[in-house]
Write a structure and sequence with these properties.
A hairpin with a 2-residue loop joins strand 6 and strand 7. This protein is α+β, with helices and mostly antiparallel strands. The chain has a single domain (about 25-140), classed as Nuclear Transport Factor 2, Chain: A (Roll), CATH 3.10.450.50. The N and C termini lie far apart (about 70 Å). The protein contains 4 helices and 7 strands. Helix 2 runs antiparallel to helix 3 (about 45-55) and helix 3 (about 45-55) packs across helix 4.
């Protein structure tokens, strides 16, 4: 009896399962980006999170006019930002909001136990359960 390899669906079923495992809600993406990417001091931990939650062709727009493309650039800029204030922590000030394939989270950042030093809002556009675009806006402190 010969096997009909054209009708074996294991590979496709595995690919669908892998996509389901690697697909995250918009709220989860927002929180993970805030804490595990831009709030992460450990380069290996930061990179692992970036690989899990960002698309390969992702983009990050920062309010100073920066445009960063791809996971390597996001890793580089997130590490550089964290290095400027390694003891600061990001704290959401509201629950993430979702609308269609987008969402936002408002946050403050500063040293634990002290008044926040600055505030911002992250907006994302998600594709297939990952961040395809991230937009950072700085806000007035609440």
């Amino acid at each position: 009896m010969a096997l009909d390899f054209d009708n074996i669906s294991f590979h496709n079923d595995f690919a669908d399962l892998n996509q389901a495992i690697m697909s995250y809600s918009i709220s989860t993406l927002l929180n993970r980006n805030l804490h595990e990417v831009f709030g992460e001091s450990d380069p290996a931990g930061r990179r692992a999170a970036i690989d899990e939650i960002f698309t390969e062709d992702c983009v990050f727009y920062d309010p100073t006019g920066g445009l960063y493309r791809g996971r390597d650039e996001i890793d580089r800029v997130a590490g550089a930002i964290k290095a400027t204030h390694p003891d600061f922590r990001y704290q959401p000030i509201a629950e993430p909001e979702e609308l269609g394939n987008g969402g936002r989270i408002q946050w403050v950042s500063g040293r634990p136990g002290e008044a926040p030093a600055y505030a911002g809002t992250d907006f994302i556009i998600a594709r297939d359960g990952r961040i395809a675009a991230l937009y950072l806006f700085f806000d007035k402190l609440p």
